Amino acid sequence: MRRASFQYLPAVILTALALALSGCGTRLADPVKAIAEADKALASGKLEEAAIHVRNATQAGVSDPAVRLRLAQLSLRLAQFIPAEEDARKALAGNADAGAARFVLFEALLGQGQAAKALQEYAALKPVSPSVDAMSAAYAAQAAIKLGRFDEASALANKALALDAASASGRAAGLAAMAQDAAGRSRVREAAQVLARDHPGSFEAQSLLAFLDQRDGRLKEAAVGFEKASTLHPWNSEVHGALITVLLDAGALEGAAQRLAQLKKLAPSLALTVFLEGLVHYRRGHLIEADQALASVIAGGLETPETLRLSGEVSLRLGNLGRAESLARQLLAKAPNLLTGHKLLGATHLAGNAPEKALAVLAPVAHHPAVTPEILALIGEALVRTGDTAKGVAFIDAALARNPASLPMKLAAAQARVRAGDAAAGLSLVEELAQTSSGIEDLTLVRSLLSLKQYDKALTLAQRFASRFPQDPAGPMTIGVIAASQHQVEAAQAGFAQALSLSPGYPPAVEALAQLEAATGKIDQARQRYMGLARAEPNNPAYPLALARLSARSGAAEKEVLDHFAQARAASGSAPWVALEQARFWTSRGRDQEVVSLLEPLVQANPKDTDLALALTNAYDRSGQAAKALALVERGLQDNASSAALHFRAGLLRSRMGDGSGAVASLTRANQLQPSANEPAIALATTLYATGNKVAAEAFVRQFGQGEQSGAVAQVLQGDFRSMDGNAPAALVHYRTAFQAVNNPLTRRKLYESLLLNQRDDEARQQLRQWAARYPDDVGTLQFAAEKLLERERWKETAEVLNEVIKRNPESVQALNNAAIAVHRLGVPQALELARRAYQLESWNATVMDTYGWILSEQGKAEEGLPLLRKASEILPGNLRIRLHLAQALVRAGDRTAARDQVARIASANPSPAIRKELELIR
């Protein structure tokens, strides 16, 4: 920490030193004059002018270390930390006052954010005197605190006190280290108050009390405290920064901006000033400006934990997940004991839909003494999203209990209840929060309301935010998102355009417009927007990835698609998640060998990345290399034995390979790791039953089905067991019981399919109508029903159900494609229009290509349909139904030789009886 007081060397001594150096009056006239001018400037409070004169003296020949120290001190007061450091080192080398010189050196290093360098400097210092050594140890303790090394900080503070028992700096450093523990903060406050009483002019005591107020959410008191501290050390930029941060947290944006203006006058080019400018932009919602400011700070070398954290948060908000992850990992490497790195990386994984990876980062710090409610809430969200809802809700409730007034905590609790199946409780909590929202939180509430499909309420809040903050592009942007969620294209475009008028180039609005254009078939316009974003942010992989998707969707050459993927991988630093996106591209085309070639080296380089391992495992499995897939999963388990996903995958693989006992062992472990998740439990129960362990399966189901939700799943499993035994009526009894206990998509689908199997068609039809009316958002159950009807070739009913799906989701490619098939089978010409709409939405999709090409051919347009069918067959060469359609189209086009070649290929591939029957018609 800092000394309580510090005095500059009297100007008269410096003048005498300059005169004593005179060997020739003419040579030393300028240095003497420079020192005299410095004295005048100091007397008038003109620090910058004084520093210029002292520096002129040193350049003119005055080399006395005391003069150099004076220059260092002036630079420090001007927040010019780099020259202050350089001159302090020169003063120390010249045997200047060691205490004063070390004071400047440590202040300059910490002012630059060089905490690690300050610790290295301390380790290299030689003892001078107890008081100087105590001050140095206290500074080293402060540096350790900044790096999150609290045990080391306490040890250094104790060393400072052992050298100088009365040291306010040492006591403050020790207290600050202990104050990281929330449980002990009240005791620390009492001690800090005693310290302030004993040392009323102590900067350390005052700033420590302000820090405690800030940590405890007493923002008004913290602002007053930092204000007092700034009067004790007016040149201390850190105090200005702390005050600005507190004002921002208190919602006093204008007050923070005024303070920032003062700091810019004091130190306009200081990295901390630019950082705080970025922080103010961030809190005002000006993300692009914030990103640019923070990037310049980091590029300038100020890679402090706080800079990395904030820059990572901005990148996360802008959707640049690759950069956010990179910054989070840099933060963890620089300050592994700080929990902010874990929080940022976990939040980034959640944003990237990787809750298991988030848990791997966050779970190890769940019981850390300094764990924050925000981290507990993130852990809870990750658990809920991986299926462990009960445990997840418990974590979020614990976070809320620790900070009951926190809006984000309340929102997390609401969203957790929605995910856990209690939408009514979640909505009630969100509506309660909306009544008390001060305005800035409205957009967070809007996101929750959107997840609950409460569009009118979401729009009311978004409009309220836009009226309160008319210059913030987030307002109209959110209004556009709400319109887009309801497929109101024109209203969505208007909202996004207004956001752009407020903030030209605003990436979320540009990207949203591009997505709208892509969805409505305006591929070229969308491409131009993304290309503009890619030029503006060349290090953001999201935009070349979007271009890759657009290129694939528009049927561009494969090389163009792969070039965009290569650009994205380069921009991300070859981040694994970009490669996974490319792997999905290959997978959609049935090119599993390319997936293997792409991912194998990445898995070797990132052996602990579960997502990569699972993606490669799936590619091995699809390409008939089950043994290789299992070996990879087992290798992953050596590094990550607590991964429920890997144990689950191992169980499924072993089951398919005929290793029943091995499958049971793996699935049992997956269930133990995620006891409240349904998938491992269902897989374990069905595997036990299928392998003849029926008694064990029944016992497991009885034990599993204790709660309301798990009880319904247990009934579903009993129904599955009866179905496996071929007893459809008994299965229906269990499915009815499950549905009556818990009415959710799982029980609805099981009941519907069982009604069809039991030939209760009228009841199935009636239930489906009731569900469609009562649960308008459950489109998945309607699509499930349509698939079951399609399998039974009940074309009219299939078309009716899918027509309802398309009304609710006009851009559902699956619904459009299957409706085209059903309507075509009914002989209705409109089938071609349905197929065309599906193709316009996903022209890269081989299944969609096949349907469109097949219907074109059957409606007498074989020449138009043939290229589509050929391409679909190239993408999915093993799909015999597509080859059959190609053969039929070739016959219609008069090319019987090529048709016979296709027929021979199909016949040699052991086709199904239905396909074999149609082959006979071609021959």
pLDDT under 50 segments (min length 5)? 1-29
- Using only CA atoms, what is the Rg? 34 Å
Strand content: under 5%
| Number of helical elements | 54
Structural class: mainly alpha
Estimate the global geometry from the Cα principal axes: elongated
Percent helix, as a range, is: over 70%
Total DSSP E strands: 0
**Distance N terminus to C terminus?**
91 Å
What profile does the largest beta sheet have?
A: none
Mean pLDDT score? 77
In short:
The protein has 923 residues and is mainly α.
Your description of this structure?
The chain has 923 residues and is mainly α. The chain is 77% helix and 0% strand. The protein contains 54 helices and no strands. The longest helix is centred in the N-terminal third of the chain and has 19 residues. The protein is elongated, with a radius of gyration of 34 Å. The protein starts with 10 loop residues before the first helix and ends with a helix.
